[in-house]
UniProtKB/TrEMBL annotation:
Substrate binds at residues 11-18, 61, 89-92, 176-177. Pfam families: His_Phos_1. Gene3D superfamilies: Phosphoglycerate mutase-like. Signal peptide: none annotated. It comes from Lentilactobacillus curieae. This is Histidine phosphatase family protein. GO terms for cellular component: cytosol. PANTHER family: FRUCTOSE-2,6-BISPHOSPHATASE TIGAR (PTHR46517:SF1). The active site is at H12, E89. GO terms for biological process: negative regulation of glycolytic process; regulation of pentose-phosphate shunt. The record marks H175 as: Transition state stabilizer. GO terms for molecular function: fructose-2,6-bisphosphate 2-phosphatase activity.
Amino acid sequence: MAKKFTLYMVRHGQTYFNIYNKLQGWSNSPLTEKGIQNAVDTGEKLANVKFAAAYCSDTTRAMDTIQTILDKNQVSDVNQPITSMHFREEFYGYYEGTDMDQAWYLAGAPHGLPTFKDIVAEYSIGKAKDFLKDADPFHQAENNEEYWERVDAGFDLIKQNPDISDGDNVLLVSHGNTLLSVVERYGNGQFDISERPANGSLTKLEFDGDDAKITAYNEK
């Protein structure tokens, strides 16, 4: 039976790679002191929201963030998250750990679009993924189709969880580009995806069976 529930998607706390402006898709960079505080602050804001389940990627930045949020929660029976590689950030292939602006320049410049924002304004975030895979000398970065095949499998994991009932809330600690990608796909153009979601910010995705829509983006 189709279920209606709200997915509370939180961006992980600030990491060292965030400070250094490096792409950190499947790479791992630890939370900074500020990043730990991001998680604490978000945990306090969500302390009285009852979650039926919690999910995150298998990266330490996501796992550390969600554990802090769950530890702060006063009303949920969920003590630990379900971790899965399906919830990882986009895989940037050869450009993992590269300066973000340089990587997107190499992806977009052959198309006359030297920045990530330029690519998105002209085409889409999905097209940016395709361009990055094309620019990757190993062609191992995820293109848009490969990315969504993986992330959709993660959403299916959540939808199939028997512990989630109609009207429930579910917590997911996610990643910057993934949140932008989800908002582009399910936001009906109502949100400004030229603004990156802040570390620790909240984005809400309402599922109703196979339908989904964004109801809040980048709430701090």
